[in-house]
Amino acid sequence: MAGAASSGFVLGVFAFLLGIAAIAAAIRRRRGRERYPETYAASGGIIYTAVSMGCGAVLLVAGGGLMALALIFRH
Asked: Higher confidence at residue 35 or residue 65?
């Protein structure tokens, strides 16, 4: 794999890893806010965590898609 296909694959790997990191950060933040229930509820509670994890999942899927496309359309 060389040229344009490799750059798409690298971008896909980056998006995939960024998605994993975003999901891990959302879970870590939720655990940290459980110690302060009033603050957790005021900042959106479980909705905040769900939206953060959803954004991470979108990055994860998009990264997987980019990697697949780079492998399918390689020259």
From this structure: 65
Residue pLDDT, tens place only, 16-62: 999 999 999 988 887 777 777 787 778 787 888 899 999 999 999 99
Q: Give the whole-angstrom CA distance, residue 37 versus residue 9.
A: 42
| pTM higher than the cut 0.70 | yes
Contact by Cβ (8 Å): 69, 8: yes
Residue 59 one-letter amino acid: L
d(CA 34, CA 30): 6
